[in-house]
Amino acid sequence: MSLHQPQKQVVAGAVPAGAVSGQPSARRQRRDLAPWLYLAPTVLLLAVFTYWPLLQTAYLSLVDWNLNPGQSADFVGLNNYGRVAGSTLFQAAFLNTLIYIGASIPLKVLLPIPVAVFLWSVGQKGHFYRAILFLPTLISFVVVGIAFLWILNPIFGYAKVIFAELGLRFPNLLADPDTAIWVIIGISTWKVLGFNVLIYLAGLASINKELIEAMRMDGAGDITIFRRLIWPLLTPTLTFVAISTVIFTMQQVFTPIDLMTEGGPSNSTTNLFYMIYQYSFVTFDVGGGAAGTMMLFGFLMIMAFVQFRVLDRRAHYQQ
Amino acid sequence: MLSFSLKSLTLGVGLAVAASLGAAPHAFAETEITFYHYQSGGNYDAFRAILDDFEAQNEDIKVKDIFAQSQQITAEVQAALAAGRPVDVATVIGKNIVYFLNNTDAVDLVEASKGDTEWLDGYLPNFLDLGRVGDAVYAIPHAYGTPMLYYNRDIFAEAGLDPETPPATWAEFLAAGKTITEKTGKPGGAHLHASMGDYGTMVMVTNAGATYLNADGTEAEFDSPEGIAALQNWQDMAKNGMMPIATDSEWSGAFMGGQMGMYITSSAGLRAAVDASEGKFALGVANYPLFKDAPRRVNNSGAALMLYSKDAEKQAAAMALLRFISQKEIANRWSRESGYMPVVQDPLSDPAMQEYVTSFPYVKAVIEQMSQTVPTNVWPAKGTLEAQTVIRAMLDELWAAKRPASEIVPEAVAKVNAALAVNR
Fold first, then answer.
1. Identity of the residue in A69, A264, A279 whose CB atom sits nearest the CB atom of B392
2. How many whole angstroms from its chain centre is CA B242?
3. pLDDT at res. A209
4. Where are the alpha helices (DSSP H) in B28-152?
5. Chain B residues closer than 8 Å to A66 by CB
6. Among A66, A174, A282, whose Cβ lies nearest the Cβ of B381?
7. How confident is the model at residue A19 (pLDDT cuts 50, 70, 90)?
8. Spans of all domains in chain A
9. pTM, entire model
10. CATH of domain A78-314
11. Is pLDDT of B292 > 70?
């Protein structure tokens, strides 16, 4: 609409050529086509790299075929889905996915809020801390994974050596099914925290500080200001952070899982994303991998939908 | 007049260009073949030097080598084949060979030899078995390894053990590991598990005389008394304190850093172990420990080469390359320069190899194990991930040592077979 508005102003008062004959003018036709032309590159890229692969994956999930051009693809209906969903690996991966997502809400979505509010409130002085917090975001997950492997190495790791100096024994965290997943969650939180703080800071920057001053003059305390003003105005940012964090959590933990645990011990750290990788690229079970991908797609769709329903309705987009 | 001259000139130039274009293919006829591999660093230099020598002898053939990480090579080759990109010779990880046989159009090397199969006879027959289907041969050994016992002579001496007599049996291995841990406080030893525990478990039970998977790869059979006893050894390693529960890379790092007494891993790591030990500790290399009185049977690790050329000209060029690589002096040279296991029969009949063994005695144990190497077991396409996941979880449970192997292993085998049932 906004694209059309200036055009209307320019031609106001003039008689369009097509109006006389009752036919749409060439200029009008070009004008109607313009938005589609602008959209075309994006639509084309989406079609080629997103929607076509999605359709192809849906097709692969219904056939028994391993991409060999010389082989026929036999339609097997929902067999691949049944096989994957019935495996203990899928059950463990699904449960762990819920744990990763469940843990990411308080740690990656909510924890950055007080940190961001603190940095925002201290103004210029907060820049140094902001840089320190953002630094882990810039480090590759591979580097982070290797660094933590060295720290937690049960034979000669730094943690073991330091604990030994204190006369204590450092537990083998990555070998214990009860603790390994929390190591992965902890590392991914450390890595993502600074990024989400930065997004919240951007959201906070849009809040008019005069409103805070006005509330203070009315006698409102810090908690009241946060509850009544900052929190409501931060909800659009919170919606974005929550949805993107939940969706990307599975990708974020992929590298530490692959580097540090390979999904073990006893499937305690694997997730749906890693399971799909294993189906498709470790054992080359294309049908299983495609079925897993479609199930993950459905799961993420539901998660995103629920979040939109829950969060977006509560978001305040105007000050 | 001018018009006529211009026309003549244009025609003349056109004819000359057309003639030169027509002549070009004959003057510079060249066949390019594509070789997928995972060699890097010094190994790549040795690999490329062999390809360069081949090109020097066959001026009309160019070999384009395409690198992919060893963990990615199977996916890369599969993707190239699926996309119709040229693949003439592909390096395929041993355990994936059956998958490739079932899911890709590999060329039978016997058929492609057109009656002249003498070049295949140079390879050790047990090394060819991995790619053999009836009379057909689909893969030749290239970058093979065999599990060896690496030990730290200094730690042995520190623990009061004789560095000249490394453990020869599993009982001795366990006793030595326990002694090292008790006397030095360092981890006594570990056994690589590799590929989600699949390879380590396979080697342990096979060496004990058990069958890991049946010939089709569709049923696990290692819940026999020998298989259970072999895996009880692995549990005992964790139970007696000699083996901290860790990943292969952590164990490898500990051994290479001179912090662990023994480590059983592939001979492919021999060069790296020698380099890492230099100036740090005295390295010892011995044969894989025997299980009681059972003859030694260890599965190969590593990769083989498969042929995919369909075009007659390219297939002939690729076959020429494979024949070149298979020559005893070239195969032995590749083994010497890369550190991989020799793959041709009687390697010591080659004077260069004899000289190599004298100057690099560690490799003697590797050569001794050549005849005791059996093909790595292969998995079917479906249910493999579930089955391998069960095996990895079985190892975690064994090492946690809350129940004996006699209870854990049969349960795991039943689960593996349930996962593989789809293939039967």
1. A264
2. 28
3. 84
4. 41-57, 73-83, 97-103, 109-112, 118-121, 125-128
5. 78, 103, 381
6. A66
7. very low
8. 5-60, 78-314
9. 0.80
10. 1.10.3720.10
11. yes
